[in-house]
Amino acid sequence: MPATASELEATLIAWSDCINKSKWDELPNHIYSKYVQNGQEYTPESFTEHAKKAMGALGEDVLLNNDLIMVDERAQVAAYNMWFKFKHATPFLGFEPTGREIFLVEHRFIWFTDSKLSKSLFVINFDDMRNQITKPDAANAPVLIGTAPVPAGNTLSREKLEETYRAYIDSINKHRTEANLGEYVHESEVVVNNEALTLAGYRRAFESYAVFIQDLRIHIHTLIVDEKSQRVAARLEITGTPTKEILGLVPDGHPVRLYEHATYQFLDGKIKKVWATQDLEEARQQQKSSK
């Protein structure tokens, strides 16, 4: 019998608690016999060793903080965001230690088998961390979702939320944002990673992507809908061929594939807030490999 949403959430909390409290003997109890993380396969024991080394590399007294947990009970999958705060004592991302605190935020989708973690796909904004290291005056507080209040307003059913979101992505793929974007996004203001934009500004962001990346296409890989909070979490696969340099991607004639993890807050049936992170590092590595 599939686990309930509350049971899966409890598994994630117990998993993170094992890591925070160094309960390395207990951690394998929450990992399925075959666990695949971003394409790398582990046994419960080998993942435990990996987690020990990863936490040790971040330094002492580092805590894994839970931000967002959204569960799709039917699909046995969860959207899970977590963050760390640390001071690196060894070279990190090519930079020597600075003594400054760095926030690392991971946006994950986690699948379960028999109530245990069996697969995980995550993205990290490495550009943001480089910015934290090289620009000491830059604001470096993480953009968190779990602490954001759920606004009061008219609500959509789970089915209608999914239908609206899929129609929104379809309008982008079919280049209909000029005419249709206002049907899915608030016209007065939409907040993207804490930056307030007008509907026109939000539209221009999509139009610039279409100019810089030929044949831009967005595919919904995984979708989780929470009717109570009126939120949608999506793992998006974005493909296209850069025709001009953008976000470190160069026009070398080769198509790229990158992933975005995004969470949307709906209010009165339209998108009001967006929290999004793209795996640009992977796309840049694809271009290096194609040379």
Question: In words, what does this structure look like?
Answer:
With about 290 residues, the chain is of the alpha+beta class. The strands form 2 sheets. It has a 6-stranded mixed beta sheet with strand order 2-1-6-5-4-3. The chain is built from 7 helices and 12 strands. It has helices at about 5-20, 45-60, 125-135, 160-175, 175-180, 200-210, 280-290, and strands at about 30-35, 40, 65-70, 75-85, 100-115, 115-125, 190, 195, 215-225, 230-240, 255-265, 270-280. Helices cover about 30% and strands about 35% of the residues. A hairpin with a 2-residue loop joins strand 11 and strand 12 (about 270-280).
Features:
alpha+beta; 12 strands; single chain; 291 residues; six-stranded mixed beta sheet; 29% helix; 7 helices
Distance, first to last CA:
49 Å
How would you classify the helix and strand content by structural class?
A: alpha+beta
What number is the mean pLDDT?
Answer: 90
Q: Which sequence of SSEs, written as H and E, runs from N to C? A: HEEHEEEEHHHEEHEEEEH
Count of alpha and pi helical runs: 7
Helicity, in percent? 25-40%
